[in-house]
Amino acid sequence: MAEAVGIGVSYKCGNVGRLVLRENGVKGVKMKDGSVYKVDTVLLATGAWTSEILSAMEDGLNVKEEERVERQITAAGFHRTAIRMVPEKLQQETLDAIVAKLFLNYVQRTPEYWRMCWDSVMPAQDQLVTKYPYSRLQNLYLAVGGSFQSWKFLPIIGEYVVNVLNGVGNGEEKDRRWAWKVEKPEGWGAHEKVVLRRDLSDLE
Ligand SMILES: Cc1cc2nc3c(=O)[nH]c(=O)nc-3n(C[C@H](O)[C@H](O)[C@H](O)COP(=O)(O)OP(=O)(O)OC[C@H]3O[C@@H](n4cnc5c(N)ncnc54)[C@H](O)[C@@H]3O)c2cc1C
Question: What is the pTM for the complete model shown?
Fold first, then answer.
């Protein structure tokens, strides 16, 4: 980021509230603090929170159910518990270097906190690097969809995203795989353990 700022990028940090629309596209981004940025182009790289921004806009535009962003990406949660180790004890256990014994110690402890870690999951676990398809929104793009495997693409994905923004694409296969899907793809992608099995509401 420092390098980008060094060549003239203006970098602002804040919480996006909603997109402000004009006749044929997005004219601004309204922040939760009330400020508005005027835009020529918007690229959402908002991961699992993308539908939080787009759903309200889709409601306003009466976008059909089957054409909405939630048919493309699902916010998926990964559940973690954390147990804080007493450092001396951890040192001792590490010294003991008995993995099985360490594991037993873990399960006898009460987790100190619980957290859900979110990512956006595509039906076939591809990325979604594309223009938003609704014809009224000519300047809205998405770079989302990770299926818990997109962190590793950080060093290279930017070039591909810029190609989409510039309208040159990334070749037939990538453009097809990373496109907004009209039909639900068959099967799941590379990692079966990421296949979504339950809705959060099933657990409440
Ligand atoms: C527990 C866990 C383990 C993982 N392990 C791996 C791994 O080993 N290898 C791997 O490759 N990938 C891994 N991943 C997946 C990887 O982290 C994601 O696929 C990747 O981060 C997705 O990138 P993204 O840019 O699409 O979304 P994110 O990284 O989620 O970024 C979205 C950003 O948008 C911001 N945002 C959202 N809404 C707003 C708003 N309204 N206003 C302003 N900002 C907003 C968020 O704060 C966030 O910074 C893991 C994920 C999790 C949760």
Answer: 0.85
List the domain boundaries for the chain.
Answer: 15-77+121-203, 78-117
Q: Bridge-partner residues for 20, per DSSP?
A: 28
Which among 37, 43, 119 is the best mutation to test ligand 1's pocket, defined by most ligand atoms within 8 Å of the CB?
A: 119
- Per residue in 159-173, pLDDT (tens digit) is 999 999 999 999 999
- Could you report the per-residue pLDDT of 59-110, keeping only the tens digit for each? 999 998 888 999 898 888 766 666 555 556 656 665 666 555 555 555 555 5
Whether domain 15-77+121-203 has CATH 3.40.50.2000:
no
Q: Which of 39, 57, 81, 60 is nearest to 165 (CA)?
A: 39
The minimum-distance atom of ligand 1 relative to the CA of 118 is 53
